[in-house]
Structures are given as C-alpha cells and as structure tokens.
Amino acid sequence: MNRIDHLDLDGKSLTTFLTVLEEMSVSRAAERLGVTQSAVSHTLDKLRLIFDDPLFVRAGRGIESTARARELGASVESVLDDLKSLTDLREFDPLVEQMEFTIAANDFPIQLIFPTLLKELSEQGIDPRIRFIPAGIPTATLLRTSRYRMLITPTPPDDPDLEKVSLLQAKMVVFYDSTIRKPPTSWKQFAVSRYVEVRFSDTESALMAVPSIDASKMIPPTISVPNFSLIAPMIKGTDRIATQPAFMKLGLLKSLDSARLPFKTDTLDLFLIWHRREHDDPAHRWFRQKIIETVNSITRN
Fold it and tell me: Does residue 93 form part of some domain?
C-alpha cells in the first residue's frame, strides 16, 4: 500500500478531483476547468497513487466513482472552502482578478440581466468567465456542490445555509395577444383557455412556482416549451395565453400584452441566492452587487 503524504495534495488537484466527481466525465471536467483531458487524467493518476484507490473506473462509455471517491467528496469540498477562506480578506481589484462564476438560472434572468451587465464590465476592461447552467426548479442541494456558486430563481430552496436577496418583485399576470383576444375575466375563462406552459422536465413545470394556481383544475396546456423565450412566439397571432410574473414584461415577453389575473395570487420574487461559504468572498460579493445594481438600473428605465 502506498503511503499517503498529505503534502502531495494541492488545491488545483483537489478541485480537479471534485469537478470530475460532479461531472462524472473527464471531458466535461476538462472543459469546465479550461484544461486538456490529458491534464485531468494526469492529475487523477497522481491522486490515485496518493489515495491508493482507483477513484474512478470505466462503466460502459462513461466512468463511475468508487466508494472511496464518494467518501472523499465532502472532505475535499471542506478543505477547498477552508483554503478559499484564507483569501477572503485579500485586497480585491476586479481589473486584475481572474474571476470565474457558475450561475444556475433560467433564460429569463440571463437575458434580462447579463447582456447589460457584461457590456458594462467589458467597457471597464473587466472580463470575468461565466458559465450559465439551467436552474429548473432548484432543490435544496443545488448550492451545496462546487458546481454552482450563484442561483437566480423565484423558487428558493429551503436551506438554512443559503443567503438570498430579492432582485424583483411582481404580481402574476396573464400574457396574451390583444389583436386576437381579450384577457380572461373569470377563473372559468382562464381555466379553459388555451395555455402555453414552460416545462423544464417531465416533472418540473414553471407553474410549480405559483402555488396559488391549481393546475389540476385547468385544461391541459396546449403547448409546452422548454424555456421562457419560446412563450411569445407561441402566443403571438393566436388566442393562447400564459401566466408569468409582471416583470417578464421587461424582457422576453415585452412584445405581448398583459393584464391582471381574474383571481387573487401571491406576489412573486426573483431571488439572487448564494451559499454562506461565498458570503464574504470579495469577488463573489462584488459580482453580487453588480447584479443588484444592474437590475435596479433596468427597472428604473
């Protein structure tokens, strides 16, 4: 058995290990880390010797983690968090900092916020590396992995380790094409209208974010689309409707007409969410503030 020497471990190697564990793919891990597949494989070979375990083995066309690798996952993440905390009080300059953020969000907040924000940063000579991942209906474990560092959603997971701030707040409204129809004026009219829904998966519909609407009492959706950008094209020129927060009028649904729903619904917030471990990180804190400032600027105009 090889003697494990903790001094042979380093933050980059551990980050590579954790990324492969999350992606279950050497190629995807290499893409995410911005390195070659051979570099990832070389690092894994080194870690196999240190931990005296295969860590990842071939399974069909992919790979599968060993029990030892899965056992190491939480400990490695904790070590990386501790290493990162050593720099939390460092001097921060966005012009020289090499910043990388992975953000879980659906297409509406991405389209609304980030073209404006990234244009402003580019004009200032700031060029962070950003990776967007679909959020769907997020679970409580979403921000417990290193894969996601920020989440933008109206459905925050119930987790005491998560911090959040409201970016936007609005009532739910009905979107429609006024050249074709009028908005529904009663629950009955609404429930029998031809409806366009956003469905992220077989089990996740955007209507799940609106608990005051009982979808079981509505006729099945006429059209189901995988993202919010397809709602307007599916409604324009038809009598179809969609129910979304009024702030969607600021972006992807600005070409449609909107009206109050003919029944009471709760106000919906669009939240920016992050894990407590990121709360005091200077780059993370700076970028969160930039997102908030961008949303405030958009809503004022």
Answer: no
